[in-house]
Amino acid sequence: MIPLVVRPARQADELVQLLRRHGHSPLYCPLLETRPGDELSRLPALLPTADIIIAVSAHAIHFAHHFLLQTGLTWPHIEYFAVGQASADAFAEVGVKAQSPQDPRSEGLLLLPALQAMTGKRVLILRGNGGRDLIARELASRGALVHYCATYERHYPELDGNELTRHWQTAGLDSLLITSGELLQRLLELVPSQQQPWLHDRLLVVPSPRVAEQAEAAGFTRIVIAQGASNQALTAALELRKME
Fold first, then answer.
1. Where in this chain does the entry annotate a coiled-coil region (predicted)?
2. Side-chain half-sphere of 47: how many Cα atoms within 13 Å?
């Protein structure tokens, strides 16, 4: 198959190599770039006071860990949680064992038994700038004291949607690997309106029911929900569809 990979460079490189090993011919076009967040300097003060650390994305972990290496700090010996397998894998890469739900969404995380009795617990959420606040609101309602740290920032590069769409069509693009609702929205904004029917007819692989619902509302008709946003989960979902 000829899937489109839109992840930022670090994860995209790994995904492209994995897809090629499975016989696919991926096209790479990063729709999102990530940069160090302006709240990283708060980590030395926030980490020692936390009882629980939650990461909502692998990017949040990568930028936090790089900052810790630069400053000579280490991850404290406390409880760690990740929204999905990709984030749990990112924690594992830096030597941290994190719990993650089978349902790779904020809603799934909030069902974990260890996050039910939260009275007096101090929670630090690592994330990018902006994003959903469901986890913080719900944990606060359970009695937790919650702090955010934006360890990275999202940046959308300027791209020519007309030129990109023509290139994808000429190359025979037949599938899309989209790992978040914001990446899906960015793709929809880039592709010209007259080419939207073509886009909607591509096989779309997404990491969760929430993104699938967003895609269906936008007009996509061939949607596959992977077991999370990890590169392995995305490739496995594409492999299953290829064999059908």
1. none
2. 16
Alpha helices by DSSP H, listed for the chain, are 9-21, 43-46, 58-71, 85-93, 106-109, 134-141, 161-171, 181-190, 196-200, 209-218, 231-243
Compute the distance between CA of residue 4 and CA of residue 11 in angstroms, rounded to an integer: 14
Percent above pLDDT 70 for the chain: 99
At residue 244, the pLDDT reads 59
Q: Which residues of the chain fall short of a pLDDT of 70?
A: 243-244
Q: Alpha-carbon distance 177 to 229, whole Å?
A: 9
pTM of the model as a whole:
0.75
Closest CA to 139 of 100, 107, 101: 107
**Cα–Cα distance, 244 to 238 (Å, whole number):** 10
The helix (H) or strand (E) run that includes residue 28 is strand 27-28
Count the neighbouring beta carbons within 10 Å of the beta carbon of residue 197: 10
Cα angle vertex 42, ends 32, 129, to 5°? 25
User: In whole angstroms, how large is the CA radius of gyration of the chain?
Assistant: 19
d(CA 137, CA 139): 6
Please write the tens of the pLDDT for every residue from 201-234. 999 999 888 899 999 999 999 999 998 888 888 9
Q: Tell me which DSSP letter residue 22 carries.
A: T
Q: What is the DSSP letter of 120?
A: T
Helix and strand totals (H; E) in the chain: 11, 10
CA distance 143 to 141: 5
**Calpha distance 235→175 (Å, rounded):** 12
Residues 64, 39: contact at Cβ < 8 Å?
Answer: no
